[in-house]
TrEMBL record:
Aldehyde dehydrogenase domain span: 15-477
SUPFAM superfamilies associated with the record: ALDH-like
Protein name according to UniProt: methylmalonate-semialdehyde dehydrogenase (CoA acylating)
A Gene Ontology molecular function term of the record: methylmalonate-semialdehyde dehydrogenase (acylating, NAD) activity
Signal peptide: none
Species of provenance: Vibrio ouci
Domain of life: Bacteria
GO biological process terms on file: L-valine catabolic process; thymine catabolic process
Keyword annotations from UniProtKB, A to Z: NAD, Oxidoreductase
Pfam families the record matches: Aldedh (PF00171)
Entry-linked InterPro entries: Ald_DH/histidinol_DH (IPR016161), Ald_DH_C (IPR016163), Ald_DH_CS_CYS (IPR016160), Ald_DH_N (IPR016162), Aldehyde_DH_dom (IPR015590), MeMal-semiAld_DH (IPR010061)
Enzyme class: oxidoreductase
Length: 497
């Protein structure tokens, strides 16, 4: 019998009464592994109302106790790390190595949530005027929600609800309908960690359920990660309903290769950063910009990429897994065909890739284009597959200008042995996350994930101090007390409760 994915409302796992269900498939063979309900309006309302009711008591819980909940949670996540990774692999198709990385990066954010007390500290100035003091308090917003994508079903939910809840909010999570099982296990472990009933709710569905969250007056803040069109819709709709919104969108991440770079390091890092996780990550390197004579390495790059082959999650020889769906594969193959038609040279073509014993999987081999220009579809669009496009320029200045003209600003990197070139690049590039001899510069959670321009809609970013500010509000108090009101006399005593 096919597994029916439950809802998580009021601290209880419950079966939906919905008459609309979606199939959850294994990308490696497209077999149905579960059925997912599109939550009814009554179920959505119950989840939001329960979160609101719970908030009234949860916000009064001592910050130290909220931190202890996160300590217990991160301990359980570490204890079940490998089991979570296996579950994640089976529903996403990720290799074991990729899946373990997904889970671990989420755990690192939970570890940061255990430090919530120091991030909730306000500021104080004594005697801003005669006998008047001013100080600020950091307080939670209320009910927050998160809408998460398929490609990181552990890491991205863990970007959101632990920090929001540690800050004193309650949370409604709507995971991707393509990969709900990992999110449900995260909720189960959160309950086992001792989370009070109602601080976390998990609902399922598609656009109607998202629209319900975006329009509901009780939801105060919305966190989203996904494609550019959906991020724009989430941001515009959420803010039009007076909500605080952070919407992380698509990317076109460039790696600049200077002629003085270490060639072996360039080739090794470029292969992994472009085809790892089947290219289905917003920080993947999808454009290589070869400066000057470094273009002579493109032939060797094709040879190194050809050594990487996709395969099943438990295949130790697999470099990465399948694409998430048949539709995703069809879209990438169409873009590969457009690249050929528009005049780019296909140095390596993975569009006809097959994996032995798994003919029905969404497989796509590493693909490399050279001779790409900025007016081609394969440059302008986020491909979200194991496809790398190569451009050639003569100078670092040209490379910087090219990248700054691109509408996206998620991540970029430069490989060079020259400190001055690296300094110029990091200073002049208009991209939020920069790597120097590091291919995918995702910051650790005590910093924040800081995409810019068309890769992000909002003001405050994910995890780190910015996330705490996103999930809280600042209250400023100005206080004055009068010396004449101080009680005096022999009968004054201090009473302790």
């Amino acid at each position: 019998m096919t597994q029916l994915v439950p809802l998580f409302i009021g601290g209880e796992f419950c079966q939906s009464n919905s008459d609309e269900w979606l199939e959850v498939t294994n990308p490696a063979n497209n077999a149905v592994i579960a059925e997912l309900p599109c939550a009814t309006n009554d179920e959505m309302e119950r989840a939001i109302q329960n979160a609101h009711d719970t908030f009234l008591t949860w916000k009064e819980v001592a910050v130290s106790e909220r931190a202890r909940l996160m300590l217990r949670y991160q301990h359980l996540l570490k204890e079940h790390h490998d089991d979570l990774a296996e579950l994640l692999s089976k529903e996403t198709g990720k290799t074991t190595v990729d899946a373990k990385g997904d889970v671990w990066r989420g755990i690192e954010v939970v570890e940061q949530a255990t430090n919530i007390a120091s991030n909730m500290m306000g500021e104080t100035v004594e005697n801003v005027a005669t006998d008047i003091d001013s100080y600020s308090l950091i307080q939670p917003l209320g009910v927050c929600c998160g809408i998460t994508p398929f490609n990181f079903p552990a890491m991205i939910p863990l970007w959101m609800f632990p920090l929001a809840i540690a800050a004193g909010n309650t949370f409604v999570l709507k995971p991707s309908e393509q990969v709900p099982l990992t999110a449900m296990r995260l909720a189960e472990l959160f309950e086992q960690a001792g989370a009070p009933k109602g601080v976390l709710q998990v609902v399922h569905g598609g656009k109607p359920q998202v629209d319900y969250l975006l329009a509901h007056p009780t939801i105060k803040a919305v966190s989203f990660v996904g494609s550019v069109p959906v991020a724009q819709y989430i941001y515009q709709t959420g803010t039009s309903h007076n909500k605080r919104v952070q919407a992380f969108a698509g990317a076109k991440n460039h790696m600049v290769i200077m002629p003085d770079a270490n060639k072996n390091q360039v080739l090794s890092n470029l292969v992994g950063a472009s085809v790892g996780a089947a290219g289905q990550r917003c920080m993947a390197i999808s454009v290589a910009v070869f400066v000057g004579s470094s273009k002579e390495w493109i032939g060797e790059l094709a040879g190194e990429m050809a050594k990487v082959t996709p395969g099943a999650w438990n295949d130790d020889n697999a470099g990465y897994g399948p694409l998430i769906s048949k539709q995703a594969k069809a879209r990438v193959v169409a873009l590969i065909d457009e690249g050929k038609a528009q005049g780019a040279k296909c140095e390596l073509d993975g569009s006809q890739c097959e994996v032995d014993g798994m003919p029905d999987g969404n497989w796509l081999g590493p693909t490399l284009f050279s001779g790409v220009t900025t007016d081609m579809s394969i440059y302008q669009q986020e491909i979200f597959g194991p496809v790398l496009v190569c451009l050639e320029v003569e100078t670092l200045e040209e490379a910087i200008a090219l990248i700054n003209k691109n509408p996206y600003g998620n991540g970029t990197s430069i490989f060079t042995a020259n400190g001055a070139a690296a300094r110029k690049y990091q200073h002049e590039i208009q991209v939020g996350q920069v790597g120097i001899n590091v291919p995918i510069p995702v910051p650790l959670p005590f910093f924040s994930f800081t995409g810019w321009r068309g890769s992000f809609y909002g003001d405050l970013h994910a995890y780190g101090k910015q996330a705490v500010r996103f999930y809280t509000e600042t209250k400023t108090v100005t206080a004055r007390w009068f010396d004449g009101d101080i009680p005096t006399g022999p009968n004054m005593t201090i009473q302790l409760r």
